[in-house]
Amino acid sequence: MLTRRHFIATAAALFSAPVAAPALAQTLPEGVEGRGPQSDRSMWDVWDAQVTPPGYDPATSNPWGLEPRFLPRLVEAKPGLVPGDVHVDAVARYLYHIRPGGLAMRYGVAIARGDLYEPGIYTIARKARWPIWTPTQNMIRRDPELYAQFEGGVDGGPLNPLGSRALYLYEGGRDTYLRIHGSPEARSIGGRASSGCVRMVMAHIIGLYDLVETGSTAFLYPPEDALGAT
Fold it and tell me: Residue 194: which of 131, 133, 153, 103 has the closest Cα?
């Protein structure tokens, strides 16, 4: 059984956060109707710059007003953890990317609301820069007022709910539709806000993205309401 005791040790601050992102648009981008969602590669570098604050210093930048503990930090990891793997502590709202030498980079995250968070062990089978997004049929049935208008999909870009980068979680070769992704709603970090995914600040996941290899394992630990007293 997964427990948050599996690892975690604090160390000195090293990294920091990027620029505040706009809220999700309430209408589909112009021209989406009649075609599938797209991500304009010619805009990727422009969008990266838009969501990264001027003079960005991962260790000190915090235009979103996050709790300081949610800024990226280099921490010690419990011995035996595999470099390259990702661990999500759903209680403390941290994501750890394990580095060589017994270290990990820690980031603040938001997790799913209610019972939509799904702890487990997953494979990161796919990665995407400025991904497109389409709500699942379950999401539309559950919250039609929120998601029905986006049934045709949303183009990649700073207003897309998956933000700047996405890591796609698979289980036994099956896409779970769970993602670790950037979010336009940076102020949700530290809370329970999503429909199942793990959210990160868009500039933070830009820094993480190139370091995560497909085939790595993601461990999503139980949230506070699923843990025992031990």
Answer: 133
CA triple 108-188-88, angle to 5 deg? 35
Residue with tokens 């995560």: 212
Residue 207 is assigned to a structural domain of this protein: yes
143-166 pLDDT tens trace: 787 778 777 888 999 999 999 999
Which helix (H) or strand (E) covers residue 126, if one does? strand 120-129
52: CB partners within 8 A, 6+ apart = 18, 19, 203, 206
Domain count, the chain: 1
Q: 210 CB contacts (<8 Å, ≥6 apart)? A: none
Looking up tokens 């700047």 gives: 164
Q: Decide if 29 is inside a domain.
A: no
CATH of the domain at 147: 2.40.440.10
8 Å CB contact between 224 and 145 = no
> Which amino acid is present at 169?
L
Distance of CA 102 to the CA centre of its chain: 23
Q: Where in the sequence is the domain holding 199, given as residue range(s)? A: 4-22+36-226
Structure tokens at 124: 């990161």
Residue among 74, 99, 72, 112 nearest 216 (CA)? 99
pLDDT tens digits, residue range 92-117?
Answer: 999 999 999 999 999 999 999 888 89
| 28 lies in some domain | no
Instruction: Give kind and range of the element (H or E) at residue 205.
Output: helix 202-209
Instruction: Tell me how crowded residue 35 is: count the other CB atoms within 10 A of its CB.
Output: 10
